Amino acid sequence: MKKRLVVLSGAGISAESGIKTFRDADGLWENHRLEDVASPEGFEKNPQLVLDFYNARRRQLKEVEPNKAHQILAELEKDFQVDIITQNVDDLHERAGSTKVLHLHGELKKVRPINSDSKIIPWENDLNLGDLNFEGIQLRPHIVWFGEMVPEMENATKIASKADIFLVIGTSMQVYPAASLIHYVPENCEIYVIDPNLPNAYTKSENCFSCSASEGMKLLKEKIIS
User: Fold this and answer.
1) So which residues are the catalytic ones?
2) Cis peptide before 141 (omega within 30 of 0)
3) Domain with 129 in it
4) Strand 121-122 with 106-113, pairing
5) Are residues 218 and 121 in the same domain?
6) Residues 113, 180, 216, CA angle at the centre, nearest 5°?
7) Dist. CA 140–CA 50, nearest whole Å
8) Buried-exposed string 44-76: b where 16+ CB fall within 10 A, e elsewhere
9) What is the pLDDT of residues 53-95, one digit of tens each?
């Protein structure tokens, strides 16, 4: 039976493909305050601004491609049972060939009615005010905004609890509840971290790779396939 590799991925893995990490050093996201474009209150205050913001993110997806880190994770399905739990809302893991991807924070290429988090609709193009579902309800991005529940968290904890190997890649482990997943892995689970900004205390660990996501995945693949 293949070992189970569970991956928690964040913005850093997609940054190499040209997708900006969601929060710049100045606390802004593409020149917007987070609370204006990534909260229920922001949507209520200025829904068209929020829709335009995610329309731009959705259009950008058509201009980028999966990078080597995404590709290696997909290739590892030959040797491991790979489950990816991602904080990212892009589809780069899927486009690289990964078959089991759980999106904690939603997906850019899906929308849902404003009164439900379960009636999800695939969506490729721009979303605007006046775009309704079959019940006549306004549609919104299928994104978990700040202050909202994370519906997939329970599924994510179940996956993490069955890991033989747990990999953290491209995330600073600052965003909760996603960061708490590491507390659900079994005691005998091997834990690896790939992050170019690792604190010095971790850089000497042979299970921590202080480098880019792509370089780290090359090193990790050599280490776990022997």
Assistant:
1) 105
2) no
3) 21-63+109-143
4) antiparallel
5) no
6) 100
7) 9
8) eeeeeebbebbbebbeebeeeebbbbbbbbbbb
9) 999 999 999 999 999 999 999 999 999 999 999 999 999 999 9
Compute the distance between CA of residue 73 and CA of residue 84 in angstroms, rounded to an integer.
Answer: 9
pLDDT over threshold 80, residue 27:
no
Contact 12, 19 (CB under 8 A): no
d(CA 62, CA 143): 18
Whether residues 168 and 204 fall in one domain: yes
The model's pTM is 0.92
- Nearest 10 degrees: Cα torsion 183, 184, 188, 194: -60
Mean pLDDT score, 21-25? 57
pLDDT band at 184 (very low <50, low <70, confident <90, very high): very high
Per DSSP, helices labelled H in 67-187 are 68-75, 92-96, 153-160
Question: Which one-letter DSSP state was computed for residue 19?
Answer: P
